Amino acid sequence: MSKLTAAITAVGGYVPDFVLSNKVLETMVDTNDEWITTRTGIKERRILKDKDKGTSFLAIKAAEDLIQKSGVNPAEIDMVLLATTTPDMPVAATAVYVATQIGAVNAFAYDLQAACSSFLYGMSTAAAYVQSGRYKKVLLIGADKMSSIIDYTDRATCIIFGDGAGAALFEPNEEGLGLQDEILRSDGIGREFLKIEAGGSLLPPSHETIDNGQHYVHQDGKTVFKYAVSNMADVSERIMQRNDLGHDDVNWLIAHQANRRIIDATASRMNLDESKVLINIEKYGNTTSATLPLLLNDFEHLFKKGDNLIFASFGGGFTWGSIYLKWAYDKK
Ligand SMILES: CC(C)(COP(=O)(O)OP(=O)(O)OC[C@H]1O[C@@H](n2cnc3c(N)ncnc32)[C@H](O)[C@@H]1OP(=O)(O)O)[C@@H](O)C(=O)NCCC(=O)NCCS
For residue 263, how far is its CA from the centre of ligand 1 (angstroms)? Predict the structure, then answer.
């Protein structure tokens, strides 16, 4: 009997309608379109404006898109994993609410947080559950309402992030398609350089933390950039070597969309042709847990059964890694 692998069998996505362009940001902070475009590759990002809607709204929309397109029966989903850094509430897990809302009434659900690598780590988790033979349909959603934790007077962060969600269904495969290999890493040195200081057990929220803006994302961009460039390129190159993949063997690079220059540096180390490097950062900015599944959703029409996809991410923590996955279907 062939080894059971875990393949992605359907994808979905959602971004809110409201577009926050570089031009509008120029009126909010001391920045300009040219600076943002050349330093990051971002032109605009989507923002969930409704004050009464949280990350669950985005996640539900992405999951419903997947369910509608694939025809999967939500009652057959065994497990819902929500990769997110912006849960609706610290307690209870947002995934549980999402699962119920989409009709995944027989599933168990929980959240998974590893900043911008949440979805990549989630792919490993989802695949492991499927490969174990214990569960057959695992829905992994990556969703973040980054606008809820961004200070729109801080030009170092407000130009980068956007809101969005994407989803992928993992199922067993007996043709050897799906997840092939992974390199996942982390280093606690990173928490000094990209963080929300207050609101957790170390520094519970207070009037003082609010006055100090410690409930917002703070980032030492230069340092994060340096670590991201070298680490994301390292693991992507290593996963190719380890699997005897030359640059011709790789069909697509699905890289976390944090900065166009970081993606280009990774692609260059992998010696990949530009046409294989999938990019949508110009439209959405950095949507944290949603960048990888939104790429899958936007470019699904390009993928052919058997294509070799290399995923790569880097995020706060620090957390980073690379996954090698064989695509399992042609889009109908
Ligand atoms: C944030 C980031 C785009 C900044 O780009 P950078 O080239 O490192 O820019 P620097 O921070 O060195 O700033 C260069 C100059 O631009 C200025 N600047 C910073 N933000 C600016 C903005 N939004 N508009 C205009 N100027 C800005 C700085 O003040 C600095 O001016 P100075 O030279 O007079 O001091 C980049 O560091 C980055 O992408 N970092 C990683 C982000 C990331 O991946 N985060 C998520 C983790 S997944």
Answer: 16
